[in-house]
Amino acid sequence: MEFKLVAEGLAFPEGPVWLDDGSILVTEIAAGRLTRVTRDGRRQVVAETGGGPNGAAIGPDGAVWVTNNGGFRWANVDGMLIPGGAADDYETGRIERVDLATGRVERVYAEVDGHRLSGPNDLVFAADGSFWFSDLGKAFAHHRDHGGLYWATPDGKTIRCAQYGPLINGVGLSPDGRTVYGALTEERLILAFDVTGPGEVAPPFLGALPGRVVASFPGRTLLDSMAVLASGKIAQATLVENAGIATVDPATGAVEITPFPDLLTTNIAFGGADMRDAAICLSTSGRLVVARWPEPGLRLAFGA
């Protein structure tokens, strides 16, 4: 697929968000900042969050909401920037609110039921203004924290763990809002969770096997973030083997991968008048590109 290079030299970009003026907001995880990139490649630092700002989305208040994983250690492998375990100055994962006009960063959530968030990764707002987010956990030298699937309200008053345990990376909502999807990076699975109430999903048949399997990927094709198409299909970022964007049909499990030239092609977000402009993060090489997608993405509840 042909694409246009919009920006390069970014510090592991993720979490693309289309803004009303056609510019694209990205998190730079390795730099701990939120950056606006115009279509001609000009950049403006919007906020310095510290830690590891990961996913981002526009909320019902017009602010940018960020899942901050708390920071990684980084390695340069043959010119590729690769994330690893927890940073030396890791404190906690958190959910942050960023005022686009002033750059003010507010920490809204850092724990649930007395347990700290480990590594929040991705988020998506529902039509009622609440949001679902994933927590990928956090890797340390000799142990690993687990995360799961969470739900919260933007007033800072209510946060719930919908499913603890699975190391969920990307998260998305079906067009009708009745299904929340989660991508399990290392298990190479896309799971579907039936929404049964505010912050609640249908209980699993077996506790150790949450959700319904939508699709599985072979070998070392790992999974990162996702977006949902207007048709209800899933645009799933794939890593390592077959790196690119996979189009997944939740009804059949059919998978078709469009390759992109980065080992960690981490994110895709849709914008433009017809919702076919796809912003894609080629993260190890620090590039943000835009491609014309064959079908439109789903217009987000509070997006551009």
CATH superfamily: TolB, C-terminal domain
Structurally, the number of domains stands at 1
Give the helix level as a range of percent.
under 10%
Compute the gyration radius: what is it? 17 Å
Give the N-terminus to C-terminus distance in angstroms.
Answer: 25 Å
Topology, element by element:
Blueprint: E1 4-7, E2 13-18, E3 24-28, E4 33-37, E5 43-48, E6 53-58, E7 64-68, E8 72-77, E9 80-86, E10 94-98, E11 105-109, E12 111-112, E13 115-116, E14 120-125, E15 131-135, E16 138-139, E17 144-145, E18 148-152, E19 159-164, E20 168-173, E21 179-184, E22 189-197, E23 200-201, E24 212-216, E25 221-228, E26 234-240, E27 244-248, E28 255-259, E29 265-271, E30 277-282, E31 287-292
Antiparallel strand pairs: 1-31, 2-3, 3-4, 4-5, 6-7, 7-10, 8-9, 10-11, 12-13, 14-15, 15-18, 16-17, 18-19, 20-21, 21-22, 22-23, 22-24, 25-26, 26-27, 27-28, 29-30, 30-31
Outline:
The chain has 304 residues and is mostly beta strands. The chain is 0% helix and 53% strand.
List its traits.
304 residues; 53% strand; Neuraminidase; 31 strands; single chain; five-stranded antiparallel β-sheet
Description:
With 304 residues, the protein is mainly beta. The chain has a single domain, classed as Neuraminidase. The chain has no helices and 31 strands. The chain has strands at 4-7, 13-18, 24-28, 33-37, 43-48, 53-58, 64-68, 72-77, 80-86, 94-98, 105-109, 111-112, 115-116, 120-125, 131-135, 138-139, 144-145, 148-152, 159-164, 168-173, 179-184, 189-197, 200-201, 212-216, 221-228, 234-240, 244-248, 255-259, 265-271, 277-282, 287-292. The strands form 9 sheets. Strands 20, 21, 22, 23 and 24 form a 5-stranded antiparallel beta sheet that branches. The protein starts with a strand and ends in a 12-residue tail after the last strand.
